[in-house]
Amino acid sequence: MTTATTVPALEARGIRVAYDGHVVLDGLDLSVEAGRVTTFVGANGSGKSTLLKTLGRILRPTAGTVLLEGATIGSIGTKQVARRLAILPQSPSAPAGISVRELVMRGRNPHQTWARPWSAEDAAVVGRALAATGLTEVADRDVAALSGGQRQRVWIALVVAQEAGILLLDEPTTFLDLTHQLSVLRLVRRINRDSGSTVVMVLHDLSLAARYSDRLVVLHRGAIVADGAPEDVLTPDVLLGAFDLHARVVPDPVTGTPLVVPEE
Ligand SMILES: Nc1ncnc2c1ncn2[C@@H]1O[C@H](COP(=O)(O)OP(=O)(O)OP(=O)(O)O)[C@@H](O)[C@H]1O
Ligand SMILES: [Mg+2]
């Protein structure tokens, strides 16, 4: 008998995804283990966002299936999916005139029902999400009036407030200075460790991806060309093949994880 712990959090089986007939993913298989941090890396246009969106039911495959905790994702209700899975898209846009707190409060929507409207617990969750992302002081400001990096953190806070077991994050560190990139990745790791949440994200910084992920999946022209522990995946050959990058890989002096150092 299959037990709950062996069911993957997400699974793509033979998915084919196309935009207006232009096929991006063709027969792709991927299984995402629960409770782990899995990161997609690859060159621009390699299909990372397309794969993430398909796993998050934003895009529908024309062939194959996506399973959310063993159930065909297309057969699950939208609100039920949102309770299990939170998505940060690559370029989210906020409604005009919305404040930081109001936007983060939307993360609680999937938890509300007619019998259980907005509660003190929801307010506490939102307060903690704002604090964890360093936004408490700007909570009442208009989202449109923030800097790019502050705004990115509002989206992170919204995803955190959703308290979903699975987080799909497309380039969560875009626009952030190095300190805030680290603070977001540490927060993601903390949520993963403390709540056992499954994280699937897209990152461009390979060395940070190696530091904060259990598993790296390398995409090249819509196909998975390497997949495994960061130290097994980040090799000069893979970097050359997937990124056309001549680089050395040395142990990060702080963490021992692979550090990618481009050749001149
Ligand atoms: N909405 C769209 N309509 C048509 N083609 C698209 C669309 N979105 C992506 N594509 C195409 O699909 C391919 C994969 O794009 P995708 O956004 O998945 O790449 P990515 O790996 O996320 O790249 P990046 O690192 O630039 O975000 C590209 O060839 C891109 O041009
Ligand atoms: Mg992308």
- In terms of DSSP E residues, the strand content is 25-35%
The low-confidence runs, each spanning 5 or more residues with pLDDT under 50, are: none
| CATH fold field value | Rossmann fold
What compounds sit in this structure? adenosine-5'-triphosphate, magnesium ion
Q: Mind telling me the C-alpha Rg?
A: 19 Å
Helical fraction equals: 25-40%
Count of discrete structural domains: 1
Spatially, the strands of the biggest sheet line up as: 6-7-8-3-9-10
Number of strands: 12
Q: What global shape is seen?
A: globular
Note the main sheet: 6 strands, mixed
Count of individual helical segments: 9
- Give the mean pLDDT: 94
Query: What class do helices, strands and sheet pairing give?
Result: alpha/beta
Task: Provide the succession of SSEs.
Answer: EEEHEEHEHHHEHEHEEHHEE
Write the CATH architecture name. Answer: 3-Layer(aba) Sandwich
**Head-to-tail CA distance between termini:** 54 Å
Top CATH class:
Alpha Beta
Query: Can you identify the CATH superfamily?
Result: P-loop containing nucleotide triphosphate hydrolases
